[in-house]
């Protein structure tokens, strides 16, 4: 245990110290985390001997996603949704549904042995994008502002939007297996959504009221104030789960509402929460690289890899081109936006969450998710900086 702790702590220290140097090169952070897990894990040198069972992996994934959903939602500038011809709004309301539909249709062709509803689950868990993999894009001032803000807002909100869609398909599968009335599936979904939304609205309101009281009485201490929003994120998630709702819906809606309530102090209060989510994300990527990714080479088929390639190209790019129709953007810029839809943390977490579901082809779904994320980490990590520089130079 202590050997693992020493290795992970050393990596975290080195990376956090030289993060600027690492992320200015071709290798992105998640790609380095993945390679680190592969190299030192059981499939590589065997130095990092992680004993994480399925329940432990699920807990790590759930806590990571809850913090990421809350932070991304709280950070989202909803005013940007209407700016620049509504670019992010087009990506979310047109591109995202078309991506899920396209993923389902391609799955019917490439993976005919997978039941249609399970293909819908696969298409949904592969739909969210991860801005961390394209950080060289969304943080690069050479890239036009509408493109950067559009991709950033899209990646911050699409994982939260995909949660109820994923819950719906899982509820329909459960209803089909139990031969229960279809209405029962929608009642289950409505209950999870309703409780999640209610928790996500009430707890931030309560926290905001306590924060105002503390400020008025001069009871606040800066070093402890930084823990308000991280604590609120975990409270929203855990409370909704206890009450039978969706903790992810609670975290996402709670983040959106908190971003509005705490808007004056939002950036200061979110710093610690973003640090927690970054640290958990690093460990999630390392565990994924060490324990999950190596299985891809032995359990996936040619059809799965073809689907992974299609997921990163035609399934993503065509819906983006359709959603951007009529905008004053040249073809290369549209292709740039379509290509930089990297799959990462949300896909990993969604894949982990369906491990406990009684799906007929769960191995195929997990394998496809692994293949897609591995390809995305490599291809988007290597192409982000060069294409961003090219686009920036051409625009100038």
TrEMBL record:
Quote any Pfam family the record assigns.
Na_H_Exchanger
Look up the record and report any one GO term of the cellular component aspect.
Answer: plasma membrane
Q: Which positions fall inside the Cation/H+ exchanger transmembrane domain?
A: 19-389
Q: List UniProt keywords, sorted A-Z.
A: Antiport, Cell membrane, Ion transport, Membrane, Transmembrane, Transmembrane helix, Transport
Q: Could you list the residue ranges that cross the membrane? A: 31-50, 91-111, 186-207, 227-257, 304-324, 336-354, 366-388
Keyword field contains Transport = yes
Q: How does it sit in the membrane?
A: Multi-pass membrane protein
Extract one GO molecular function annotation from the record. Answer: antiporter activity
Q: Which InterPro entries match?
A: Cation/H_exchanger_TM (IPR006153), Na+/solute_symporter_sf (IPR038770)
Q: Name one GO biological process term.
A: proton transmembrane transport
Q: Where in the cell is it found?
A: Cell membrane
Q: What PANTHER family does its record include?
A: CNH1P, NA(+)/H(+) ANTIPORTER 1
Q: What name goes with this protein?
A: Sodium/hydrogen exchanger family protein
């Amino acid at each position: 245990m202590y050997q693992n702790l020493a290795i992970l702590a050393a990596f975290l220290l080195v990376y956090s110290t030289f993060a600027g140097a690492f992320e200015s090169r071709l290798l992105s952070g998640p790609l380095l985390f993945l390679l680190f897990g592969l190299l030192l894990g059981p499939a590589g040198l065997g130095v990092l001997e992680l004993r994480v069972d399925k329940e432990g992996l699920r807990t790590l994934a759930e806590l990571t996603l809850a913090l990421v959903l809350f932070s991304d939602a709280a950070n989202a500038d909803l005013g940007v949704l209407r700016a620049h011809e509504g670019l992010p709004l087009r990506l979310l309301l047109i591109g995202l549904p078309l991506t899920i539909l396209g993923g389902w249709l391609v799955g019917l062709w490439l993976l005919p042995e997978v039941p249609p509803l399970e293909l819908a689950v696969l298409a949904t868990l592969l739909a969210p994008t991860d801005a961390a993999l394209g950080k060289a894009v969304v943080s690069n001032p050479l890239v036009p502002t509408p493109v950067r803000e559009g991709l950033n807002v899209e990646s911050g909100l699409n994982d939260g939007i995909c949660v109820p869609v994923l819950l719906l398909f899982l509820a329909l599968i459960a209803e089909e297996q139990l031969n229960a009335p279809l209405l029962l599936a929608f009642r289950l979904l409505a209950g999870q959504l309703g409780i999640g939304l209610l928790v996500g609205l009430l707890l931030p309101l309560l926290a905001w009221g306590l924060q105002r009281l503390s400020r008025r009485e001069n009871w606040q201490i800066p070093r402890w104030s930084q823990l308000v929003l991280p604590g609120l994120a975990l409270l929203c998630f855990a409370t909704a789960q206890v009450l039978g709702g969706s903790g992810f819906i609670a975290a996402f809606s709670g983040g959106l509402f908190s971003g509005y309530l705490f808007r004056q102090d939002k950036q200061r209060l979110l710093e610690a929460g973003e640090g927690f989510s970054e640290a958990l994300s690093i460990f999630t990527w390392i565990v994924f690289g060490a324990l999950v990714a190596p299985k891809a080479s032995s359990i996936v088929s040619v059809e799965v890899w073809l689907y992974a390639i299609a997921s990163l190209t035609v399934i993503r790019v065509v819906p983006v081109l359709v959603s951007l129709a009529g905008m004053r953007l040249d073809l290369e810029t549209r292709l740039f936006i379509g290509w930089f839809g990297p799959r990462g943390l949300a896909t990993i977490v969604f894949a982990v969450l369906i491990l406990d579901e009684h799906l007929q082809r769960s191995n195929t779904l997990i394998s496809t998710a692994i293949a897609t994320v591995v390809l995305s980490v490599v291809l988007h990590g290597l192409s982000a900086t060069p294409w961003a520089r090219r686009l920036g130079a051409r625009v100038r």
